[in-house]
Prior knowledge:
The complex is a heterotrimer of chains A (142), B (501) and C (365).
Chain A: E1 2-6, H1 16-24, H2 31-35, E2 45-49, E3 52-56, H3 65-69, E4 75-78, E5 81-84, H4 94-98, E6 105-106, E7 112-113, H5 127-131, E8 137-141
Antiparallel strand pairs in A: 1-8, 2-3, 4-5, 6-7
Chain B: E1 10-14, H1 24-28, E2 34-37, E3 42-45, H2 55-59, E4 65-69, H3 82-94, E5 99-100, E6 115-117, E7 138-140, E8 163-165, E9 169-171, H4 181-194, E10 198-199, E11 216-220, H5 229-234, E12 237-241, E13 252-254, H6 261-267, E14 275-277, H7 287-300, E15 307-312, H8 317-325, E16 331-335, E17 344-345, H9 346-351, H10 356-369, E18 377-381, H11 387-396, E19 400-403, H12 405-411, H13 433-436, H14 441-465, E20 481-483, H15 488-494, E21 497-498
Parallel strand pairs in B: 9-19, 10-11, 11-12, 12-15, 15-16, 16-18, 18-19, 20-21
Antiparallel strand pairs in B: 1-4, 2-3, 5-17, 6-20, 7-8, 13-14
Chain C: E1 12-21, E2 27-28, H1 30-36, E3 48-53, E4 63-69, H2 72-85, E5 86-93, E6 107-115, H3 117-123, H4 127-141, E7 145-149, E8 154-159, H5 163-169, E9 176-177, E10 179-187, E11 200-202, E12 205-211, H6 216-223, H7 235-249, H8 254-261, H9 266-270, H10 275-287, E13 297-303, E14 306-311, E15 320-324, E16 327-331, H11 334-340, E17 345-348, E18 356-359
Antiparallel strand pairs in C: 1-10, 1-16, 2-9, 3-8, 3-10, 4-6, 4-7, 5-6, 11-12, 12-13, 13-14, 14-18, 15-16, 15-17
Helix pairs in contact in C: 1-5, 1-11, 6-7
Amino acid sequence: MKRVYVNEAWCLGCHxxxxxxxxxxxxxxxxxxxxxxxxxxxxxxxxGKDKISFAVSCRHCNxxxxxxxxxxxxxxxxxxxxxxxxxxxxGCLSCIMACPYGALSVSENGTAQKCELCLENxxxxxxxxxxxxxxxxxxxxx
Amino acid sequence: xxxxxIYPEFEVIRNDKRCIACRVCERQCANEVHSYDExxxxxxxxxxxxxxxxxxxxxCPTRALxxxxxxxxxxxxxxxxxxxIKEIYKQANSGGVLLSSMGNPKPMPVYWDKILINASQVxxxxxxxxxxxxxTKVFLGxxxxxxxxxxxxxxxxxxxxxxxxxxxxxxxxxxxxxISYNAHKSLATAARHLGVLYNTGEGGLHEDFYCYGxxxxxxxxxxxxxxxxxxxxxxxxxxxxxxxxxxxxxxxHLPGTKxxxxxxxxxxxxxxxxxxxxxxHHDIYSIEDLRQLVYSLKEATxxxxxxxxxxxxxxxxxxxxxxxxxxGADIIAIDGFRGGTGAAPTRIRDNxxxxxxxxxxxxxxxxxxxxxxxxVSIVVGGSIRNAADIVKAIALGADACYIATAALLALGCHxxxxxxxxxxxxxxxxxxxxxxxxxxxxxxxxxxVNLMNAWRHEIKELMGGxxxxxxxxxRGNRLMLRGIGLTDKELEILxxxxxxx
Amino acid sequence: MNHIEGQVRIPSGCAIAxxxxxxxxxxxGEKIIESMKxxxxxxxxxxxxxxxxxxxxxxxEFYALHMFFNDRASRKNCEGVLKEYFEIxxxxxxxxxxxxxxxxxxxxxxxFVAPLRSMLVNLQLDEKEYVTRSVMKINxxxxxxxxxxxxxxxxxxxxxxxxxxxxxxYKLEEYEAYSWTAHGRYPTNTPGWWGGAHPFTLLDYSxxxxxxxxxxxxxxxxxxxxxxxxxxxxxxxxITYIMDYLLRVQKLSLDEAxxxxxxxxxxxxAAKTDISEKEKLKYLRTVFxxxxxxxxxxxxxxxxxxxxxxxxxxxxxxxxVGEKDDKVFIASEEAAIRMMEPDAENIVSxxxxxxxxxxxxxxxx
Lengths: 142, 501, 365
């Protein structure tokens, strides 16, 4: 299965992936309208210190702990992809506690959110990958 | 401030309606132009630091930025132009020699743009490169004056060492130090992909790149930095650098700040020490000395590698080339006065040397007049900008072209001409690790390969139009060229007729 | 301003034909003249000519210089110079007949000469090189004089006009040759100079050519390094010098020379399984890149004892070959061959770059 992989050697720490992610999941067609003056709720985040940086997002584990611990059945897998059904999420945030990678986060309305590889939005392919200026995030089969 | 003040050259125009304060510009500017005002939640800019490298413009996700030339002008004066006056202010401040980077930006004649290419109509057919074979392979090196045959009448197929190129283009010398590890890696891997060569410049060869040896020209320049036996053995050819088009007559200077880590080890000089290449080679004060170095290098490498002698295009270039062609060198590389540089004194870059077009035409003619054109191949550089320039250069008589500025542009360079600062935001002319990593050599290689493939297609289209299906039938084929708006003298030197003749 | 030939490059289309007897049997010029008639429209009356081999058996040891002179003075002047270089054993006017279609003829003369031994020794040159240089000198330095044929036991005959008329003009029915080549010219310019007609020759090499080569200036500027002067700026001239350089100076075989001027594509060379052949082809292309001829051409090279026909490597010009008994026929069109031999057999159209070499039996010429 194609997954998003990160290569910190080429990560510039520019944070563009976060903005592209938030924009892709905004449902709007203009980035300015989507993001200007708003608090950002990206599903990928750039972490790092000093001169090392890298983006973190869901790895779509083969045996996802988040799915196991989800009390409402909101988190589930779909052909290997870990997805979230927001209508079922009760906002207990157990998944955030369980994920060893810090790949889940809280969304604007308090439910959990995570990377779904942009297959649920109009982008069609991971926006973080598409917008990365240095190919530090790639979407590929490994 | 006061008397020292020079108003910033550029203005950063930020469209506040579009800016989402993502701070990408701030993070990407090594010159620290952009900053974020936490209190007002807006981006600020300090234009005094801007070099117009366009990195922030290119990465701004909402196209909220543009950089424009400042319209704060001194009173207009055709003689004392703005730049001229500001240079005087700078020198009055510093007492120093002005430094510049990349090629001569002055409005000097570009002869390529005054030469037009022929095409077939009626009397012979043009050839469609999509349907017919179209060959761009060239061999550089000395050609024998007489074919030798054995007692059975069979040709003895022995040749002096030759360089085989899939197309008549090579990446010219840029040292590791003046450009980054990732820039070098991009060039090396692209050269391998393309079946051409790149050139180490005078900075030695990083140990990681020995594996690209057969696509590498190793350079020996006046400072001899990084030269040792393994280095000479590593390359497919050895280039003796006598001069450079951007700065004929002077040496090189890589500041100690760039001599760090691997650069220091590769150059074989201590960290932090300035790398100063002397103006001349101190063992070459005359043509016979050059011959000695040519043969020393041949001797050291078992006569297996062609020796290139690179010179800047200067007034007497035809005679110089004639001397080199008789020195044992296999290839002459001529660098025209518009050639690029990582740093050169501005006055020298802008005023010394001659255009490559004229130098090439006169060298090719002189070598033919003397019957020694076969002794050497001719490679020309110094602002070869596109496939048409290459076709014109080949038709004037070059065997191949050296490109560097065009290659750097492919890697992201936006020609801001401040390489000497070491803060290249595109990760090319810098040694700062956080900047170097901005150039992913995988992307760099792809873009170089794309550029060269695009040019190869264009060269084939142009050749096909002329009814030529192999690049060797274009070489020196000056009948395929016509001048436009050139004087009789210029036409005479170029050896071409005027359009309409 | 009207340029004369040599001051301007003149592309032209053409018709070619040739016949050779492998047994060395002699043929008069009538057949070859006939062959040009069906190809009338391939010429435009601005040049026609013939080369004939084996026509001067009684003077076979001497170089036959065929010359055009503008006037008597230039002939006298030139003869003076000739005597400094050569022993002239015979000099005569070339017989012609007056016909209405051929006018404005220059003075046409032939000399049978031998190089002066003392000069050869002085200049340390072999005989052929000496003759070549002398011809170049006359053609470039003597106004009003032009050598248009300089081989032994062969000669060319050319004029401004249609080839079939040129044949009649020169009384070619009176010459007997074991090999003939012919040419009708269609220049896209109107210089109308007799020297510009084909065949073009140097020593015993003659070329008839149909095409317009795109590599002309690359070839010219290369070959001029070796003492040749391309005074006419025609393809045929430069091809002749290239063949002389490759065959006489570089001592290549005909096949080798063919794979220089119509070199196989690199991809073809790479696909060769015969290693030594592959190595040789690569060597020739590497050593003589500037002698690759591109653009359309079909040529017939005549030389003492044989012919070679060759097309450009893309076969951009028509050329067919046929046989009958001891004879081989070559022409731009099959119709021309049928005029010479209605029952010609094995008519083939050689592939681009494939040299057709026909040699007369040893001792038969």
